[in-house]
Structures are given as C-alpha cells and as structure tokens.
Specification:
Number of helices: 5
Structural class: mainly alpha
Order of helices and strands: HHHHH
Shape: elongated
CATH class: Mainly Alpha
Helix content: over 70%
Oligomer: single chain
C-alpha cells in the first residue's frame, strides 16, 4: 500500500513529466513552424523577432501557470480555499497562452485580435498571483512569467 508521501512524490513526478512533455511538444511544433517559415523565402509571411519572443514568453507562461494551477489544486485538497480564484484564472491563462503560442507560430491573421484578449487574461493572472507571491513560490513564478508574457504581447501589439 502506498503512503501519502509516496503518492505526493508520485503525483509530483507525473506533473513534472507532463509539464516537460507539454513544453517539448509546444517547442517542437513551434520550432518546425519557424524552420518552415525561414526556409520558405518566397512566401510573404515570416516569423518576426516580436512573434518569436511572444511564443517564448507564452510557452514559459504555460509551464509556470500549470505548476501554479497544480499547487492550487493540492491546497484545495487539504481544504485550503485561499487560492480558488487563482485556480480559476490559471485555467484561463493556460488555455489562452497555449492558443497564443499556436497562433503566433502559424502567422494567423487573427493573432492581433487574440493577443488583445490574451493580454487581459495574463494581466488578471499576474494580478491574482501577485496577491500570493510572498506565500507561494509557484504563484511568484507564475506572476513573473505572466509579466514577461504581458511585455511580449504589448511589444508585439505596438
């Protein structure tokens, strides 16, 4: 029979594996899109430095927000509801930044409109995590990655 400590270690290992697999999957699909874009010189779309920075920031945001979300879930399991709002916002942020990554790397015509919505979601997440950054490292890391993503979105939109 597994002890609670072993289950926690096992859960943590699974989470770390999934976060790494997600990051690898996103990085691989984005890298192949960039390579294809750079090889296709006569195609009018290209991946700009601003879009590359946007993709990097969004991937980083997804990774740190998944860790933050999982931390919120673990606290909820113990009966601590102080991070319930953080959990809700983190789910939105993960979805938005995943999509932002895909639209950025595929040179979508809808990227600018989507970036505006993503900006608002990242700002909400950054603000919520700021409230908890002194108590929870996962929230601090998420807040910082959201801040970098906000900067990258604003730079792209400028």
């Amino acid at each position: 029979m597994k002890t609670s400590k072993n289950m926690t270690i096992e859960s943590e290992s699974k989470r770390n594996f999934l976060v790494g697999a997600l990051a690898l999957g996103l990085t691989t699909s984005v890298s192949s899109a960039f390579a294809k874009s750079k090889d296709d010189h006569h195609h009018h779309h290209h991946v700009s430095d601003d879009k590359a920075q946007l993709v990097d920031a969004a991937i980083d945001c997804v990774k740190n927000t998944i860790v933050c979300r999982d931390h919120c879930i673990e606290l909820l399991k113990t009966g601590d509801t102080t991070l319930t709002e953080c959990l809700d916002i983190s789910n939105d942020t993960i979805a938005m930044c995943n999509t932002l990554t895909q639209l950025s790397s595929s040179n979508s015509d809808h990227l600018m409109a989507f970036a505006k919505v993503s900006l608002a979601v990242c700002q909400d997440c950054e603000k919520e995590c700021r409230r908890h950054k002194d108590k929870h490292q996962a929230c601090k890391d998420c807040m910082e990655s959201c801040s970098r993503c906000i900067d990258a979105i604003e730079k792209y939109m400028a």
